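WARN retry 2 of 3 for item q-0093 after timeout on previous attempt; input resubmitted unchanged.
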Amino acid sequence: MNRDDEHRRMLRRLIWGTYRESQRRRRNLTTGLLLILMVSMGFIAFPYTEVHAAHAMSNCGLGFDWPIESKQSPMIVRGFDNPAQPWLPGHRGVDLQASYGGILVAPSHGTLVFAGQVGGKNVLTIDHGGGLSTTYEPATTTLPVGMALRRGEQFGKVDGHSDHCDGQCLHWGLREGKQRYQNPEHAVRQQRITLKPVDDTSAIQ
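OK item q-0093 returned
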């Protein structure tokens, strides 16, 4: 074998090695782009750590709107106070400042599943699917149970009897499943919090 043949063989090996490397990089790039495309289109879901619903809602919200028809966010006259145990006293919802006759609007899409009295209190309940439901007290409606509701649709009014909200507020509750109560304030789409001031002279927003 002369020197020219050896040079040609070395050149072929170099060209072949360069070609194989370029093909490998192209395959890797194609695979990466395909993976990104599949993830973005929802074909692949990566494992995740389950986050408690209350923590998730406090961080990102569920996309609810306030349930009282108004141009401004309602004042919260009493906040959420979930007891450590189901049988202990607490406040399983928030009280929003409202007067009798105030119009109620659906905070999200759902179905009216209850309208009646519970322990002498006038209560309405909307099922939003996914195990989530909201309750309203005191509240009445002329709509039939089973009525589908759209976000923002009027479904009742502040009226009837309550154990602590008569004529001054609406008790709004949010429940996940049968017994897990959540803070509905954390589910509001726009986290604009309005607290009723102690001296009633100004509002903290």
